[in-house]
Specification:
Distance between the termini: 5 Å
Number of helices: 6
Number of strands: 12
Strand content: 15-25%
Length: about 240
Amino acid sequence: MRIAIVGDVHGDFERLRAVEALGPDLVIQCGDLGFWPRWPTVGPELEAFTPQVPIRFCDGNHEDLETLFAQRVPGEPPRAHEVKPGLFWQDRGSTMTLPDGRVVLFVGGAESIDAGERTNGLDWFANEERLYKDDLDRLPDVHVDIVVSHTCPESFRIFDQLPYKIRELNRRKFRDISMESLDRVLERYRPSLWFFGHWHCPLVGENGGCEWRGLPRIDKEEGAGPIGPIEDKVFWMEG
């Protein structure tokens, strides 16, 4: 199985179609897909987007979390939810097993630094965005090989790798309790691979035998000018 792993999409489904055109068997997306079915400017584009291959995503801080969390069934363990044909939201603590036997754990959640420009309960969800103890309590008691999250553990110490502009714009992201929570996930499972988005640039490192990668955003950022080929923004993995 040929797997494409990508970072933040922010509702730019044309770019996601470009990833599909590269021929993956599966796309794994690290949050901030832009799942806004009720949002006037994004909802119609989401409705028109029909995945050509299965896409599995964890929730980021730019999703309609109220709609996603409504998929949960009380008392049911975390699992994947097909929110539209071919598009699967992987609830926090859900897993999937690749054909090669490796287990992937999905753990969404992150704090928005642009909350002041958004409306609580409409396009921002104050008490649901961050990763809390209740989320950790729902994690499965299984062996995990790969973790997919939106932000990253604090212990990855990515600060010095960030380009100056991104570092200065995103200092507040380092005060996110979600990063501390993900440290606990790292300590508990000790996976061999970890993928995340949120920081909008390529990052790479290693922590206690865990190889980790931060994925760049793939959407066309407004006002950013020309962006590189989509091929340069995708990490490929055999599964």
